[in-house]
Amino acid sequence: MKTKWPAAVAMGALVSLVLAACGDNGDGDGSGTSSPPAGADAPAGGPAGELKVLTHRTDLDQDGTLQGYADKFMAKYPEVTKVEFESITAYDDDVPLRLSTGDFGDVLSIPNGVTNDQLAQFFEPFGTKAELSAKYQFLDSFSVGDQVYGLAQGGIATGVVYNKKVFADAGVTQPPTSYDDFLAALQAVKDNTDAVPLYTNYKDGWPLGDLQRNMGVAKGNADAKNDMTANDAPWAEDGDAYWLDSLLYDAVDKGLTEDDPTTTNWEESKTLLGTGKVATLVLQSWAISQMQAAATDAGASADDIGFLPVPSATAGASFAAVLGDRYYAMNAKSENKATAKAWVEFMIEESGYDAKEGFVSTLKSAPLPSNLSALSYLGTELFEPTAAPAGAEGLFDAIDTAAEIGFSSAPYRQALIDQARQHVAKAEAFSALNAKWAAGRAAAG
Amino acid sequence: MGEISLRTDNTPTVKPVPPRGRAPWPRRVVSRCRAISRRRLVRMITPWAFLALPLGLLILLTYLPAYNLIRYSLTDWDGIDPTMNWVGLANYQRMATDPALYRVLFVSLFYLVGAVVQIAIALYFATILSFKVFAKNVFKGILFFPYLINGVAIGYVFLYLFRKDGTLDTTLAFFGLQDPPQWLGDPKLINASLAGTSVWRFTGMNFVLFLGAIQSIPGDLYEAAELDGANSWHRFWHIILPGVRRVVALSFILAISGALAVFEIPYVMTGGANGSKTFAIQAVEMAFTHRKVGLASAMALVLLAMVLLVTWVQRRFFPDERVELT
């Protein structure tokens, strides 16, 4: 009988392990379904019950801003008992892995890495393009055929954030909008001030990946990405990809960027720009408010922060792509879709989130935010990039994957910077990219 | 208890032939048999019951993922899609035919050299600190301490050390060395800098291994050697080194496999940029940037095969012989 006790303990442990595993399973399945199917018995499917939202904005979750929106939402729809937020730091690493499990809340920000031909597997459409386009813009990015799977949380304009004071000190009086003027301005900053003309944010990398949003901006070509899928040499001279990557390549090659790119730091870059130690950062309009805040925190003036369009290929014209920043989507397996949809509509139309972030509103009727006034002053032409044609939604990503370029990834542009620092001829670096792209097209096209 | 009382009960009496329809043996005997078999059953189950937890965890956390890794390596899965297409050995074919995938192994050489330096430093300090030295335990603590720090934290600390006008440059300037190179910015130096960080981090672990082995060498050997007129170099070469040989050999195996699979420090510090990409970083990039989880799984398995091969070759040439010191 002596043996019985330990055996029982061990068996008990085993059982509890199995039970724990079961519990885990239930939970894993659950968060999508954990909300009681209250939406089902609510009258006419009105918003009710519990809602779970996955968000990339850890900062807004921690400082209570999101809870503030949730309170307003629940005040509007008293039937809704709870809005739960799960904010994830490594959003684009973690969430794609959860997609195939179905465990990703009722509403989420669409993570990078999901291709358009996969949308229908995971997400519930908001409606058809025809009915939504009367009210909303930026519908193209996450639409398949006529179905819209993503609504933009807000729009952003491509451009360059710069320190006006540094430009003035360097003797640049006219805001440079063309490619040649811009490089000349950077050179003037280098010659006449101590500031770094252009800071790459090489170490953190994602600002480099985001440069892909400037595709086609130099020439105002809304179809640039679609054209690229039909082109074996997009990096050939005067091509859209050529202009996109030339700015970075030439600036690094001419020594107009920081000395040691490997030790850059994103949080620090905000202060460096605000205090005039860095002249320019190629970012989108969402960065303006953050840069102004950093400038104020560092004891400088928020008024020094300015916004320029991305340098254009030709003098006298300038362009800015306006695109959705992050997109909301609804879980196709959610049992509370009515509430999920109401939440997304509330966030876009009533929460004030877009105004707080300086976003262009997803609502067509809303005016442009004040932080883009410089663009209107410069006569910059705004355009929205065209969506991929029906049947070719995933083509760009498929070619990019097959080519192993990683068009929107950091390592790709870090490698370009590496080459430019070692003064590899631009033509050589770009023709290698052309060869890769052509091979990718052959494999995936 | 039970067994003895049973025997005393049964032996003296000669039972009459039991009437038909009843069990041929007294009930107590039957129950005794049952008790034994149940006990034997319990005895058989007990070790497995104890093992169930660790084995379950081992299967759940090691073998199941490993099985999945093999499965993924035979598909073209992108890491997201619920469906994965069977592609057979195509991923391995790519591994075998694309030299670009192996170019990054060159980077591992830096870490291998670093590991040799690391073993030498660790052995040196372990030898010194195994004798009577001033503030011995303080030095032991100082040497082992870096190993206790989280690798990500070390990455960030060294990032500040290596940056322009950072701690290292300032220190060098204090000693009059102006115009230092870019420790991470220079593609010729970056891997040496990162390997140096790795040495700093892992010396402590080698040190503790060596120290333990050296302390297990009986003290009278040193006395005998001293009587024979051996100096400290002789004592190191003829007593200490043979005594810790197996641990040194183990350290080399760990060093080689570690150099092949190095990931954490370069990933945290540079993300593989500026020519510091290692095989493991390349596999991660393949899986999460280029969305080729199938190919990345194949790369991981090839890396495993390389480590196993190195270990096998190493064991082949340096077989595990018993070390007799006495």
Provide a brief overview of the structure.
The complex is a heterodimer of chains A (445) and B (326). Chain A is an alpha/beta fold.
pLDDT averaged over residues of chain A: 86
Question: Strand count, sense and closure of the main sheet of chain A?
Answer: 6 strands, mixed
Total helical elements of chain A: 20
Secondary structure: number of strands of chain A: 15
Q: What gross morphology of chain B would you assign?
A: globular
Roughly how many Å is the radius of gyration of chain B? Answer: 31 Å
CATH topology of the largest domain in chain B: MetI-like fold
> Under the CATH scheme, which class of the largest domain in chain A?
Alpha Beta
What CATH architecture of the largest domain in chain B would you give? Orthogonal Bundle
Principal-axes shape call of chain A = globular
Q: Spans of chain A with pLDDT under 50 lasting ≥5 residues?
A: 1-44
Strand content of chain A: 5-15%
Mean of pLDDT of chain B: 85
Identify the biggest protein-protein contact and residues per side: A-B, 39 and 40 residues
Features of this protein?
heterodimer; A: 445 residues; alpha/beta; D-Maltodextrin-Binding Protein, domain 2; 2 domains; six-stranded mixed β-sheet; disordered N terminus; B: 326 residues; mainly alpha; MetI-like fold; 14 helices; 69% helix; globular
